[in-house]
Amino acid sequence: MSYIKRQPKDFMKSLQFIHFSFLFFVVIFAAYVALDAGDQLFFTYQEDKMFLYMAILISFIGNLSSKYLYAKLLKQITADSSLAQKATKYSTAHIFRIAMLEFPALMCIIFVMESNNIFYFILVGVLVLMILSLYPTKYKFANEVPLSAKEKSMLENL
Prior knowledge:
This protein is an all-alpha fold. It is 77% helix and 0% strand. It has a domain at 48-145.
């Protein structure tokens, strides 16, 4: 039995909770690194060119791969699947998408930890904003997943 049949009201809430858990971990880890380094932090983009290029490359690849994987997983959702199957596949696609954006953010935080250069927090901030913009809602679910009229009405009642 799938989780949407057990608790249909909690499908989107659980996905939103997972979304914020990923985001919360990134923010808490960044705050820990910033507080732990304290006065040793500095801002420059002239030094540590290797970390700079790696951070930008990892962020770019993470963003592209998250979009590609998300689109690929959404294409696997067929119109004749049940609402529970669609919700499960959508949840999986969304979690992978957020994880593919969280990894570059965590790597940039590790670069801050290694170099004490807070320039990488700019990339972390951009990635955090991207994760925030992908917040899952019923409206996004209804627009991104092929739903029948009956399923759309069921979704409105959740």
